Amino acid sequence: MFERIDPEKFSTLIEINTLINSEYGDATSLLTQILESATRLSAGEVSSLLLKNETDGRLYFEIALGPVVTELKKFSLKPGEGIAGWVAEHGQSLIVNDVETDSRFSGEISKSTGFPTYSILAVPMLVRDRCVGVIEIINKKDKKYFTQDDLHWLEIFAVQAAIAIENARYLQKARDEIGYLREQINVDQGYHTLIAKSPDFLEKLELIERIAKTDSSVLILGESGVGKELIAEQVHLKSSRRNGPFVRVNCAALPEGLLETELFGHVRGAFTDAVQNRRGRFEVANGGTIFLDEIGDMPLPLQAKLLRVLQQKTFEPVGSSDTMTVDVRIVAATNRDIDNLVKSGEFRSDLYYRLNVLPIYVTPLRQRKEDILALADFFLKRFSRETKKQFVGFSDQAVELMLSYPWPGNVRELENAVERAVVIARDKTIGAQDLQLAGTQDTQDEFHGKNLKDALTIFKKHFIVSALTEHQWNQTETAKVLDIQRTYLSRLIKELGIANSKE
């Protein structure tokens, strides 16, 4: 096969084989090293490693080296397109030392990048006779021709790359399965998977570690959809009550009469439809934790009964004179301005002070940039698994959009956007247009042709309108969330010509 063994090439092969057979964590770095070695030893000018998408059969530039790296990664090849497409389709290697004379050559990418192509060396990466991708070397330096020796060595590198890809996929599959099983265990037990990368949220988790060890009441504050319920779950799971029940009650979901029986239960004959005794949520939660979501919407008469449970651990079921004693930790949450509710008399001050022993404020998603991308990746994997579609991630434009978008609906809105994108996306990479975020296209059209000052004004207007809408046009709450003075917000509203569409 070879006239003589090149010491440099042989040493490189040994080195890469050692890495493949070790616990090498980063597959991309390993593949890049394989491609760098192949390019150097074949004296190529530009090289790329293309992976085949099993869903659509297209070849995507996974790794590219040389002067047109950025431009190359914008392209993909249809099945059978170009030299690389032919190699992938037929599973055979090719040397083309004069591309202009080969009908299989497609010059579209060369024209688009402005990088002239004279010769190509391409070999398939095969896993059990199935092509998973192609390694392609373009233009041998000094305009020399690629040789059979170059081809043989590149085929060996392609075998190594295929093994690395297969190992990486098995490892990723195992990690995904382990993550999925952990997630399912959480789901089966009624808990959510918590994703946190931002310093702010990690700081909250450290605070929860300390808070959870006590039995004091916890009040969680924050906008709708930020993850207050997940915080409540963590308080319970990290406490000594973790093996006890965790009972959830949405105080805004039921009218006063039903909410009272839901919380405290009733005895037979307490009212017309009370045909048998019913345990309330507090009784069910005995020995554990009760999570009272939307506590700000609880009617005043029930607030008095809740205060008694907090102070004395006792209550009477509806229609009963028998007093029950419970050992329950109360974790409450609200997205309303509870200080204003107290001032207006809509919420009892004594109950507020008893609940507010350990307050936790959950910042909105727009202020936790690191969490946006971590959550988006988590949702992408979950919905990809559910829809049985393969995706490699988000495009740069999609990432920029997600980081700049204000997310008025917070984590809930992000989850919906990713799910929608998974359903409608046609490529293996989620694009900005797939997310279909409210108002982003209109805003982009408004930006077109504007100078920086005008574009910033447009963005500021949309950002403030989004925040005002989320808080029902309450300027005091909106100013607090935007971290500005209310008087300054009022001035901005006038200067930017913002009007409440509902008025």
Task: Provide keyphrases for this structure.
six-stranded antiparallel beta sheet, Rossmann fold, Beta-Lactamase, 3 domains, 503 residues, five-stranded parallel beta sheet, Helicase, Ruva Protein, domain 3, alpha/beta, elongated
Walk me through the structure:
This protein is an alpha/beta fold and 503 residues long. It folds into three domains: 7-175, GAF domain (Beta-Lactamase); 199-363, 3-Layer(aba) Sandwich (Rossmann fold), CATH 3.40.50.300; 367-495, Helicase, Ruva Protein, domain 3 (Orthogonal Bundle). The protein contains 21 helices and 15 strands. The protein has helices at residues 7-20, 27-42, 69-72, 82-90, 108-113, 148-188, 199-211, 228-237, 256-264, 281-284, 300-312, 338-343, 349-355, 369-387, 396-404, 410-424, 432-435, 440-447, 452-470, 475-482, 486-495, and strands at residues 44-52, 59-65, 76-77, 94-96, 120-127, 130-140, 218-221, 246-250, 289-293, 314-315, 324-325, 329-334, 358-361, 393-394, 429-430. A six-stranded antiparallel sheet has the order 3-2-1-6-5-4, sandwiched between helices. A hairpin with a 6-residue loop joins β1 and β2. α1 runs antiparallel to α2. The N and C termini lie far apart (82 Å). The model has no long low-confidence stretch (mean pLDDT 83).
